[in-house]
Design goal:
The protein is α+β, with helices and mostly antiparallel strands. Helices cover 23% and strands 19% of the residues. The structure holds zinc ion. Zinc ion (ZN) binds next to loops.
Length: 260
Amino acid sequence: MAAHLVGRRVTDAWTDGLRLREPLSRTAVRSLVGERIEAARRRAKFLLFPLTSGRTLLVHLGMTGNLVFRTGQNAEPTAHDHVLLDLDQGPPLVYTDPRRFGLFKVLTATGLARSKWLRNLGVEPLSDDFDGNFLHTACEGRSRPIKNLLLDGHIVVGVGNIYASEALFGARIRPTTPAGRISRPRMVRLVAEIKAVLQRSIDHGGTTINDYLGSGEGGYFQQELTVYGRAGEGCLVCDKPITNKVLSGRSTFYCTTCQH
Ligand SMILES: [Zn+2]
């Protein structure tokens, strides 16, 4: 997006106006005409495109959304195209979303600062703000299982279900452990494991195979998982069977011998 969108001016804008996670405003989409896209940023799973006017285009892909250029394998319109932006150079940009759980909003600076979608987000996991001291302090006095706190996004964003299981195994911490009972040194190790597992996954193109359009080569990370999806198979460290337990509605995998 940064390579292809930054510096482009919107010359025409169309929307079918169908409701996404929130109503999709025809007026807001039309108001993009004349705007130039100044930057392309990400915060948690939100894409932010600051515009010349000082407003920001906020996009979330939901479960099945995508931003694609109307070219190549995406040259044909589909029934799931909800926004189309003509640009001053290159093919049009299309927001497509079969299940319509995404967001496509234009916000003023104030609206962005107050946005309910952004204001309660935890720190970015690969930023320097996320370290062992930070996580230890954030979990002080908390009795919820550490895995649930990692997943809920208020302390740290971007640690998905698979990555939480993998990082907790790497740090030898049982996912059910009350977060407030984990020592500072173990939190330091956990943070290092989280950063490492995320970085490895990014290097391998992510864990998702279904619907993945990004670079066309996602999914390789699934072959490297140490505990996730391995219930009943031998632990890679001690060979005892991996346990699967549902925590907060999410499948959680761990070794009862190595993780405590
Ligand atoms: Zn083990």
